From TrEMBL, chain A:
Xref: Gene3D superfamilies: HUPs
CDD domains xref list: ETF_beta (cd01714)
Domain Electron transfer flavoprotein alpha/beta-subunit N-terminal: 26-218
Native organism: Haloferax marisrubri
PANTHER family per the UniProt record, alphabetical: ELECTRON TRANSFER FLAVOPROTEIN BETA-SUBUNIT (PTHR21294), PROTEIN FIXA (PTHR21294:SF17)
Protein name per its UniProtKB record: Electron transfer flavoprotein subunit alpha
Family statement drawn from the similarity comment of this UniProt entry: Belongs to the ETF beta-subunit/FixA family.
Name of one Pfam family that matches: ETF
One MF term in the entry's GO annotations: electron transfer activity
């Protein structure tokens, strides 16, 4: 482990949450006008991958699954400092839910001899949080979910994560290889350097892997996705009970009574 | 620069490029700002074979840009095919209206049939967020490298010459032979680098604008429009901008209406706030019905350079040129409100001059001076010179133009068309009296007519 760790960071292109609206009549997301951007928690994943590389040496490889325009998020990762990128792209991936998606990412991570795989805790367009544990499950690797910070112990071949748990935090030591899901806002992502950003957007090209390259062409796509959406509904806000009080004393009395 | 990708086990491995190349002097020019002037300059240079880096502070071109709403396209049409451009409506009607603060309106409307024919007098409403992004894409397709979310913070110098820019990014300095300053009206980089002086208060206007969403049919019906036809309404008088010197506007987009006011920043500093001014304008009985029921989907504010030819800075420096709003290229003659066409024209001439200078391996002010000369001989500077008198003259005559005249017109109209049992002749006389009195008698009226004769000349 003296030459550092193979760090893989999984990133996803999502519609900009600031521009996504919900059609009040149909209850569906209107994503058509929203520009595609890097999933917000993935900025924290990229930052922790880069910080990990700073600490233990090695390389950071960004991977994403999607059509060719999705390589824009690989550019964003490389601009921030990732060393390279892999685009998993294939019509066969179309319609994949979290099960085949995490399988594809798991196979790619294995192919890259990953010591550590880092993801954002969830994507802002589907919010399942299932993909990072899915990657760990498919490969039989350790996992650190809802991680707020990382403490590498390269001499022991161990990565210690501080996890957000109810009422506090816990520190968990995981043997490599390990999959980490970083909490949104866990760190302060570094801005891309100007020259690195120019490089990422003009010269950098990710390699492209297909489902067949990963030997999973019969295990991905809509047909291999167990999720079925039964229906959708919008919830109307509940009318709150309101009481008006005239003074702080009255408010105190009222609260004391209610509590 | 790129390593050979290695293949092991049949699968292509990713290139790992930890080393970041250095792009100092890899580009012939750096353009500061991807608005209309910057993009026109970048596009022109790329077409002439130059490598151009265009830096934009917003997440996409157009996100930081504000204008009233009408884009004039004669030069853009020369540069790109605008058939696919995201245009909203062509201007089929111009309407000039004087509003008093008592609710009176006197308007003149024009709908020449020729405007209905392609290319519609090269006048279209556009939404900048969509148009600028499209225009910048034409530049990128021509080979320009566009980098967004990057704010230029200053200029690099070698001796006196500009040799590059600094940005807000780490490792954020980049050298290039020429820098094009297309940073807009609030030109902090140019001012910080002493390429232009901080403008005087009376040479800057403030504009605030809101966009209201309405059905296409509602807009068509309210403004009497068909198909892609659109309307540009301009407003003057106390009912438009209160105590200030300036005007209001209402422009139709496809499914929204842009409403705004522009007035001297001096008036805002004296206490007339932009939001109260816009609110009063939108509440005026002549304006409110146009936007009734519309949902406010956007509000924005910006400064507008209105110093005219007098306030134009030096356009060329050793290693740098100034274009568009940053160069003060906005025309407000009362009747004509133009800026986008001048921005594109200046970007085009600057781009041409830079390409010619770099072909001679030069980037000094003297070699770039063709830009100043060409712009000087174009409609841009000619129009600015021609109307240079306008701002000062209306400011000096504000009381008459903005308060007395709108009321006198309304009183005269009321008299002239009055239905009672007095003769038309008497009504005409009374109407005339209102106007002559407001203008300061026959002598005053003649003096004012003389003073403003150039408005239509």
């Amino acid at each position: 482990m003296n030459d550092g760790w193979n760090i893989v960071v999984c990133v996803k292109q999502v519609p900009d949450a600031d521009d996504v609206t919900i059609d009040p009549d149909t209850g569906t997301l209107n994503r058509s006008d929203a520009p595609a951007v890097l999933n917000k928690p993935d900025h924290n994943a990229v930052e922790s991958a880069l910080a990990l590389r700073d600490a233990v040496g090695g390389t950071v490889t960004a991977i994403t699954m999607g059509p060719p325009p999705a390589s824009a998020v690989l550019q964003a990762a490389v601009a921030a400092g990732a060393d390279g990128g892999v685009l998993l792209t294939d019509r066969a991936f179309g319609g994949s839910d979290t099960w085949p998606t995490s399988l594809a990412l798991a196979r790619a991570a294995e192919e890259l001899d990953a010591d550590v795989v880092i993801c954002g805790e969830e994507s802002t367009d589907s919010s399942t949080g299932q993909v990072p544990p899915g990657i760990a499950a498919h490969n039989g690797w350790a996992q650190l979910t809802y991680t707020e910070s990382l403490d590498p112990r390269p001499d022991e071949g161990v990565l210690v994560g501080t996890r957000d748990v109810e009422g506090g935090y816990e520190r968990v030591a995981a043997a490599l290889p390990v999959v980490v899901a970083m909490v949104f806002g866990a760190n302060d992502p570094r801005p891309a350097g100007l020259h690195r950003k120019i490089f990422a957007e003009t010269e950098f090209e990710p390699v492209q892997w297909t489902a067949a390259d990963l030997d999973i062409e019969d295990r991905v796509g809509l047909a291999n996705s167990p999720t079925k959406v039964g229906g959708m509904d919008t919830a109307s806000p509940v009318e709150r009970e309101r009481t008006r009080v005239d003074s702080v004393e009255a408010l105190y009395d009222h609260l004391a009574e209610v509590l | 620069m790129s390593h050979e990708a290695t293949t092991a086990g049949g699968l292509q491995r990713p290139d790992l490029q930890t080393e970041t190349p250095n792009y100092d002097d890899a580009f012939d020019a750096v353009v500061v700002g991807a608005g209309l002037a910057g993009t026109a300059a970048a596009l022109t240079m790329a077409r002439d074979g130059l490598d151009v880096l265009m830096l934009e502070r917003g997440p996409a071109p157009g996100t930081k840009n504000v204008f009233g709403g009408v884009l004039y396209t004669p030069t853009i049409r020369e540069l790109v095919d605008i058939d696919d451009a995201p245009l909203e409506r062509y201007i089929a009607e111009k309407r000039f209206s004087i509003l008093s603060s008592d609710g009176d309106e006197t308007a003149i409307s024009m709908r020449p049939g020729a405007w209905r024919d392609d290319p519609h007098n090269d006048s279209y409403t556009v939404l900048r967020r969509r148009f600028d992004e499209w225009f910048a894409k034409q530049a990128v397709d021509a080979g320009v490298t566009l980098v967004t979310e990057t704010t230029v913070t200053g200029l690099l110098r070698d001796g006196g010459a500009v040799v590059g820019v600094t940005t807000d990014r780490p490792d954020g300095e980049i050298h290039a032979p020429v820098v094009v300053l297309a940073e807009g009206a609030n030109s902090l980089v140019s001012e910080g680098a002493d390429l232009k002086e901080r403008p005087e208060r009376d040479a800057v206007a403030v504009s605030v604008k809101e966009v209201f969403k309405l059905d296409r049919d509602t807009i068509d019906d309210r403004f009497r429009l068909d198909g892609d036809a659109g309307a540009a309404y301009q407003y003057f008088g106390e009912g438009a901008v209160g105590e200030a010197v300036g005007g209001g506007f209402v422009y139709t987009n496809k499914r929204s209406v842009s409403v705004g006011v522009v007035y001297r920043v001096e008036d805002a500093a004296a206490g007339q706030t932009p939001e109260a001014t816009l609110d009063a304008f939108e509440s005026h009985p002549a304006v409110a019905p146009l936007i009734r029921g519309g949902r406010r989907i956007e509000y924005s504010a910006h400064v507008v350079p209105e110093g005219g030819a007098r306030a134009m800075p030096d356009l060329v420096h050793d290693g740098a040129v100034v274009v568009g709003d940053a160069a003060g290229l906005v025309l407000n003659s009362g009747v004509h409100l133009e800026g986008t066409n001048m921005a594109v024209e200046s970007g085009y001439h600057a781009g041409k001059a830079i390409a010619a200078a770099l072909a001679d391996d030069r980037s000094d002010a003297e070699a770039l001076a063709a830009y100043t000369r060409d712009l000087d001989q174009s409609f841009v500077v000619e129009n600015l010179r021609h109307y240079d008198w306008f701002q000062r003259t209306i400011a000096a005559d504000r009381q008459f133009l903005f308060e007395d005249l709108p009321r006198a017109l309304a009183s005269a109209e009321t008299e002239y068309f009055k239905m009672d049992r007095t003769s038309k002749d008497e009504h005409t006389g009374a109407a005339r009296d209102h106007l002559v009195a407001a203008a300061g008698g026959w002598f005053g009226a003649a003096k004012r007519a003389w003073r403003f004769r150039r408005m239509l000349s």
